[in-house]
# Entry
Amino acid sequence: MGLSREDVQHVAQLARLDFSEEEEARLAEEMSRILDYAEKLDELDTSGVPPMSHVLDVTNVFRDDDVESRIDQEQALEPAPETDGPYFRVPQVVEEK
# Structure
């Protein structure tokens, strides 16, 4: 499947990229080779291959979440330099118009 420079220009426009004519020609050739390879892969008989969600058969290796201790809202706000009721008060960083 050959891609033209116009195809590359269209994709570049969608991605808001700007390429020189030489880059467009090179990208058209490279992208064509990639699509040709994908077409070859599409020809493979995968009927005996079970579907999978990952390339590697990996299971969750993380530990279980164990809740050790909790602090209440009052304890969480205690070290704050400023509070506003149940909230942390922080300096304003966005100006209003």
Residues 30 and 77 are 57 Å apart (CA to CA). Residues 5-42 form a domain with the Histone, subunit A fold (CATH 1.10.20).
